[in-house]
Write a structure and sequence with these properties.
This protein is 47% helix and 5% strand. It is mainly α. It has one domain. It has a two-stranded parallel sheet with strand order 1-2. α1 crosses α2. It is globular.
Length: 81
Amino acid sequence: MPVVDFTDTPFATLQQTRPQFCTIMSGIETNAAARFDALLHNDPADDFLAGRQASDILNIMTAMSDINLRVGHGAGLSRRR
């Protein structure tokens, strides 16, 4: 398996390429940029993937951005009155 390296994807780059991701992360964590960038460094115990945790976050957020939810009242849910 090839080694995947996400170290060229710091928070500042995400602000240019995926600003909505940065908005979400910043809404959850006040120090999102530093926390995300810290995930980009290799864990000495894990030489398979540099930035594995960061890549997991990006994969989840990418998948979530592809989900289309209905907007408005009664979005597919039946309500008894």
